[in-house]
Amino acid sequence: MSAYLALEKKFRRMNAIGEASGVLGWDMSTVMPAGGAEARMEQLAALSGVQHEILTSSEMEDLFAHAIESKGDLGSWQLANLREMQRIWRHATALDGDFVEAQTKAGKRCEMIWREARPNNDFASILPAMKEVLNLTQQEAKIKAELFECDTYDALLDHFEPGGKSMRIDAIFDDLAVFLPDFTQAVLEKQASETAAEMPDGPFSVKAQEALGREMIKAVGFDFNHGRLDVSLHPFCGGVPDDIRITTRYDETDFMTSLMGVLHETGHAMYERNLPKDWRLQPVGSARGMTMHESQSLIIEMQASRSEEFVSFVAEKAKVAFAGKGAAWAPDNMQRIYNKVKPDFIRVDADEVTYPAHVILRYRLEKELIKGSMGLEDLPQAWNDGLEGLLGIRPPNDTLGCLQDIHWYDGAWGYFPTYTLGAMAAAQLFAAAKAAVPGIPSALAQGNFGPLMGWLNENVHAWGSFLSTDELLTTVTGHPLDPQVFKAHLKARYLDV
Description:
Blueprint: H1 2-30, H2 37-55, H3 60-69, H4 76-93, H5 97-117, H6 123-148, H7 152-160, H8 166-192, H9 206-220, E1 227-231, E2 237-240, E3 243-248, H10 255-273, H11 289-304, H12 308-321, H13 331-338, H14 355-371, H15 379-391, H16 417-436, H17 440-444, H18 450-459, H19 469-477, H20 483-495
Parallel strand pairs: 1-3
Antiparallel strand pairs: 2-3
């Protein structure tokens, strides 16, 4: 027992350092002056090095051995915590400290270059820095694949989705890639035969957009005593459970994109905020991977906030916020706007039907890049060809193509599939929530997320990492991740089937 408690102490310290890194990362992406980049890279690299030193100290192996010997004295949550500790420790000991610090620096350096390259449509300027990031990622994948006796991609995927397997994702995505083209065409034909959506007239001031966004995320349950809403180039949710940082970006010609983006990030925030407090700073008290994290953002943004019930509520709020007049502000017209399907270039702005194609594209490309079967010089062409094959549209430039996302440039390889896996889990969880609490839709019509959030807190958030993704879904919904539930949701919402 003493060995286990010693491990808890070490992980508590390590995770507190990780939280400090998270807040510094938020600062870097929002308010830090560009001139502070080099110093911030050194700070973040040093902190990642300290975390690595804690995990790989000479006594850790003995502590784990003794903790495992006495595991009969541990409770169920302690056993689950020990399991997660071992998984994290194995990943850490695969790499040396200098390598970890070099990765951190390379990712942050590349991210800073990306901030200039993206708006300037300048892929060439970022290529050298991106090659360094990819090279280090490939080295990490190879080392861990040999150690864990797994596929190189799976070695990276495990960081974002513990236990995830690319073989399973391949089957799910290949099936989805077959399903989506005909389904999308059917939706486009149906929507073309219906009354066209009328876009409200702008401009929509940033001040009014921010006020509306704040009102809506408060309705979800976000507590501004424990969080902030700010602006960044790429929207994200960061910080720590007691100090959550949401960011968005505003467009004065389109308030809907920012509003739904803020609601998306609020889903992430509510998950973090409601993780089990008794297990703060311990692995078992952390979120259960990015599939479950994305399910929490998408259950708010896509399942609840685009439901007819909530749209009827938010339409009136938006009309008042922007002093809107006319039929464009009517709930039925707003519903048509929110459910409008149109293949487009930007993933974060994509509709629910075409979004999976964006994820499938990135997943396929990053697998090739990690395995070395494609070079980075070929990425723009491969990206454009792939999007054209999946959605029938071709980006006119790299800003709308391979430069649009931050993930690869800051070192997050193996993350992308969790977006669509999360969408599938969200559909499954929302169906289960409505079956368990039939009053959820009527509450959403009043802007009341309480019944939904109460169910999520009890059935998802409170579990932390005690269960695997499939175990959690099976416990809550009766079966593991099932892509057919997602398909059924799409058919019901977009084809009335």
